């Protein structure tokens, strides 16, 4: 019976996750289309709200479909309380849970990730701080960009 459930549930879950991923890509594409100051200026207004609500909800739904149920104890720190979040050890796909629960903050990511099909578009709408491993000044530039965003007095979203 367990094998039969797996034979039915695995394809069903895969189809649902693919559909959720397609919706996330579509939402990210809409939010970043015709964006003024692409990557230089923070997303504001309906674009930011769309990312926060739609992508956060889709991410939570995807993890639910995969069988994860996440409960939050306590209150998530606001932008004024904590302009920078630290999540460790950020080495797996579970980092997306943290992003969904904290309102889709900006993240620090490899620059190469932005060119990945589908995921790159979704990642771009989070306005990541891109780290280039080929650039010798990348570490210094990343620290400067994180500091600039943290001191922006709420113009940029929180950085994780």
UniProtKB/TrEMBL annotation:
It is found in: Membrane. Residues 70-156 form the Phospholipid/glycerol acyltransferase domain. GO terms for biological process: lipid metabolic process. InterPro entries: Plipid/glycerol_acylTrfase (IPR002123). Coiled coil: none annotated. It comes from the Eukaryota. Keywords: Acyltransferase, Lipid metabolism, Membrane, Transferase, Transmembrane, Transmembrane helix. GO terms for molecular function: 1-acylglycerophosphocholine O-acyltransferase activity; lysophosphatidic acid acyltransferase activity. SUPFAM superfamilies: Glycerol-3-phosphate (1)-acyltransferase. The chain crosses the membrane at residues 7-28. One of its GO terms (cellular component) is endoplasmic reticulum. Signal peptide: none annotated. The keyword S-adenosyl-L-methionine does not apply. Belongs to the 1-acyl-sn-glycerol-3-phosphate acyltransferase family. This is PCAT2 acyltransferase.
